[in-house]
Amino acid sequence: MSRHKVSFSIAGVNFELESDKAEPVRWLRARYAPYLSQAMPGVRISLCYNSRRLPPPGKKLLCGPYIIYENRGRNLEFKIYAKGSYIALGDVLRFLISLVLLENGGFLLHSCGVIIDGGAYLFSGPSGAGKTTLARLLPQENGETILSDETTAITKNSGGYYGWATPFFGDFGSIGANNKSALKAIFFLKQARRFKLKRLEPVYSSARLLGNIFLLGGNWRYNYNIDRLCDAALGCSRKVAAYELEFLPNKRVWNYIKEKISPGG
Amino acid sequence: MELYKRKNIPWRIIDKEALVVDPQSSLVYPFNRVAARIWQLLDGTHGLQEIAGIIYNEFEADQEIAAEDTRNFISQLKEARLIEKL
């Protein structure tokens, strides 16, 4: 049976996915176009729609109509037995990418991400909090860049934390570039009748992060690495400033934010 | 009666405050310094009165207020099923 392959890079991790059906690979090539890569893969994903063979050795993870096996050999490998439509594949990949980022203290955050003056700023909250609204209101006139209106990746290295674009987006649509920048601050959104910024201590910032990290919120039944998630949230909270942002969803919001993040703001 | 934390509840202390995660309910609890200290003391070797006494001593609180706050907080922890009795 012929195999179809696609390679992509998300948040600095190189993936190779091969499938026994062409459609999912075509869909990924279109959907992940800015993220396609020829780099040596660190994570291999094998997608089987037609296989009835016995499952491979490894830890069994479940995700909706997909059954996933994780195998840690020389490379991290996932084997996915799929029963459903390949459209749901995006959710499965988001789940796997979350697991992979967690290996190094990173995670996917339900957030709108932007780059302003060379620094990444994330605006996090559940659906309806105003993430897409903020992305739409951002005046992109001085080099401001949107990373995503829905899901941004956070990674950790010796120099600190980075905010990355991802191919997971909301109503704003595809962003079109695989950008990253040093993470300067995280804001937790609260729509209100005023503008107000409140600094959050690390323990409160961690609690907010855990509520908005993919893998948790709805996925807790997997009970996968919650200890590691706690450490990732705490690590980020200790290094990156976090705030609760009360805001009115109008054009003044970005003036208010830029004033607050400017030196001396 | 000694009280202890439910098993398999991840928790961390940060700057003397605590972060407690309940995988069963999918809830995350940030605790302030006093609550974090009470949480630490729920190790199966202390009873309610003893914990209230430690809080009274360590935080220089009014004795009655310390006892009432400790009782209320432990009651909330029980309601949230984060602790069990020996």
Descriptive notes:
The complex is a heterodimer of chains A (265) and B (86). Chain A is of the alpha+beta class and 265 residues long. Chain A folds into two domains: 4-102, no CATH class; 107-261, Rossmann fold, CATH 3.40.50. Chain A is 25% helix and 35% strand. Chain A contains six helices and 14 strands. In chain A, strand 4 (59-63) and strand 5 form a beta hairpin. In chain A, helix 4 (202-212) packs across helix 5 (226-239). The model of chain A is unreliable at 217-221 (pLDDT under 50). Chain B has one domain (2-85): Alpha-Beta Complex (Outer Surface Protein A, domain 3), CATH 3.90.930. Chain B has three helices and six strands, in the order ββββαβααβ. In chain B, the strands form two sheets. In chain B, strands 5-1-6 form a three-stranded antiparallel sheet. In chain B, strands 2-3-4 form a three-stranded antiparallel sheet. In chain B, helix 2 (48-58) packs across helix 3. The longest helix of chain B has 17 residues, at 63-79. The mean pLDDT of chain B is 91. The A-B interface holds A 201-204, 206-207, 210-211, 216-218, 220, 223, 226-227, 229-231, 233-234, 237-238 and B 10-12, 14-15, 17-19, 21, 23, 26, 28-31.
Task: Write out key terms for the chains shown.
heterodimer, A: 265 residues, alpha+beta, Rossmann fold, 2 domains, five-stranded mixed β-barrel, 6 helices, B: 86 residues, Outer Surface Protein A, domain 3, three-stranded antiparallel sheet, 6 strands, 43% helix
Shape of chain A: globular
- The number of helices of chain A is 6
Oligomeric nature of the chains = heterodimer
Global mean pLDDT of chain B: 91
Radius of gyration of chain B, whole Å: 12 Å
For the record, the CATH class of chain B is Alpha Beta
Low-confidence blocks of residues of chain B: none
**Major sheet details of chain B:** 3 strands, antiparallel
CATH topology of chain B: Outer Surface Protein A, domain 3
What portion of the residues of chain A fall into strands of 2 or more residues?
35-45%
